[in-house]
Amino acid sequence: MEVTEIETLAAHMRATGMEALEWRHAGSQLRIVRAGGAAQIERDHADVDAQALVAMPEQLVRAPAVGTFVANHPVTRKPLAARGAQVKRGDVVALLECAGFLREVIAAADGVVCDVLAADATLVEYGQPLLTLNIEVVE
């Protein structure tokens, strides 16, 4: 994939509000993640052994649905993702109670929780920012 093609994809992401794009082909991978309005790019090539970590700006974790924000585990009452907590991509960082069911809010990237923006037990809208993550990606 040429640099101009990547720039075109990043511009399309900005124009449409898309937050992430992942492309894989023949042992190579390209992942573009928008953070703070700028598109950040991750590359993984099969022929690269050592990969450097690049610190990135904060990324918002948004509500996947309308519901009541649940910051603490319902059984242990411990925070699912407190400020300063290390999280991995795919980790449950919060819950939403929707029509009596709990829906997981998942971290889209590895990082550190910078701030929890929603108060526990408050109603949140679809797409509302819930947390901010300081993320790191492989370049």
Topology, element by element:
Layout: H1 3-16, E1 20-25, E2 28-35, E3 38-44, E4 53-62, E5 67-70, E6 86-87, E7 92-98, E8 101-106, E9 111-116, E10 123-124, E11 129-138
Antiparallel strand pairs: 1-2, 2-3, 4-11, 5-7, 5-10, 6-9, 7-8, 9-11
Q: Overview of this structure, please?
A:
The chain has 139 residues and is mostly beta strands. The protein folds into 2 domains: 3-50, no CATH class; 58-138, Beta Barrel (OB fold (Dihydrolipoamide Acetyltransferase, E2P)). It has 1 helix and 11 strands. The strands form 3 sheets. The chain has a 4-stranded antiparallel β-sheet, with no helix packed on it. The longest helix is centred in the N-terminal third of the chain and has 14 residues, at 3-16. The protein is elongated, with a radius of gyration of 17 Å. The chain starts with a helix and ends with a strand.
Task: Provide the descriptors you would attach to this structure in a database record.
139 residues, mainly beta, OB fold (Dihydrolipoamide Acetyltransferase, E2P), 2 domains, four-stranded antiparallel β-sheet, 11 strands
